[in-house]
Amino acid sequence: MPRKRRKHRIRSPRLRAAILVVVIILLGSFTWSFGSALTANNQQSLSIKAVEWVRGHGGGQLLRVAEDFWYTWHQPPKGGTPPKGAILDTASAKAKPVSAPSSGPPHLPAPANVAPFVAHPLPGEGVWQPEGRTVGGIHGLYVTTMRPDPVHTSLVAGLAWMDPKLLSFTLFAGGAEPGGGPWPNMAPISSSQAASLVSAFNSGFRMRDARGGYYSNGRMAYPLVNGQASFVIYSNGTANVVQWQQGQNIPSNVVSVRQNLSLIINNGKITPGVNSPNYQQWGATVGNSVLVWRSGIGVTSDGAIIYAAGPGLSVATLAGLLQRAGAVRAMELDINSAWVDYFYFNPPNGGLAAPANGTRLVYNMERPPQRYFEGTARDFIAVFARPYPG
């Protein structure tokens, strides 16, 4: 008769104990790491914290497949009209001083209205409205809302025009991005900073996905990459969007450089790559063929900074918004509803900017205006009124 095979069992008590210790260590490490992520002191919901932890621990490909599947089956509807009030009406603009006083600080001319993409625009669509505190009686911020394309006509995107002669820009580090803190400027925004705050908006992807670098206040958190799109802030507070070519040799007048992917507009033309469906080119989670919340920033020929954001955007439609608003160079910033936000503030009597006097650029942006007045994991850009003695 054939002999019965014996099941191999671990007989050594020492070996069993060693295996048990390894299992306990692994489970403990997972519990500590995942638990720390869920209890991190920032504004992210538990679901966002969990997703970010999975993505940061080798699960990016799995999440990309899941998100791509979800977005594919939840694409924005075609046709329709926006909810009442989603397009900023012009009545409020008429009540605000638009023309500049005869004397005051140097400033750019107010922007020309943006031509709508739809055949029958709604009142106020593409019409710039002055917002935020003034500098010498002159507005440095104008905002408008409009449909981003002639197909998805129930969606609304927002645009913000900022005058760097009246406003200054500062890169703030987040609690997790770029890491290596503390940094000179980090959330939450302080009361002294709130005294001149005009607006604040999201920066780019997490650094592991940005395919670029991060430099600020004399420190290189991640090496800068030549050829990549870069939001550059100078020592005088002005800003620009450029294709970086200086390597790690930072000009003396540069304070911060935040890189994210490649330019989507260059020399006034939309770059051919915006039509690529490759998720690795335009988003570590979803590709250009999927329409999601996206944001971007550009610069006009006279130096104004333009921010654009909205739901149901491809990289191509985002570039189209920025180009129509006058951008000659532009880059994509962050994507997905949890990360895209722009807030502007109208404090009473020139007082402190605060969540209570903050407004979302687009009515259905997910995060509330208090986001940067609390701890936040991601870096962001804050915009301040320049001092004016007059």
Question: What labels describe this entry?
Answer:
27% strand, 7 helices, five-stranded antiparallel β-sheet, alpha+beta, globular, single chain, eight-stranded antiparallel β-sheet, 390 residues
Structural account:
This protein is an alpha+beta fold and 390 residues long. It is 20% helix and 27% strand. It has helices at 13-38, 46-72, 91-94, 191-194, 207-210, 279-282, 315-324, and strands spanning 129-135, 138-146, 157-162, 167-172, 197-202, 214-216, 219-222, 229-234, 239-243, 254-259, 263-266, 269-270, 292-300, 305-313, 327-335, 342-345, 358-360, 380-385. The chain is globular, with a radius of gyration of 24 Å. The termini are far apart.
Query: What is the gyration radius calculated from CA atoms?
Result: 24 Å
Helix-and-strand structural type: alpha+beta
Give the number of helices: 7
Largest beta sheet, briefly? 8 strands, antiparallel
Tell the overall outline: globular
H/E series, N to C? HHHEEEEHEHEEEEEEEHEEHEEEE
> Helix share of residues?
10-25%
Distance between the termini: 107 Å
Q: Strand order within the widest sheet?
A: 1-2-3-14-13-15-11-12
Total number of distinct structural domains: 2
Q: Average the pLDDT over all residues and give the rounded result.
A: 86
**Could you tell me the strand content as a percent range?**
25-35%
Number of strands: 18
The low-confidence parts are 93-98
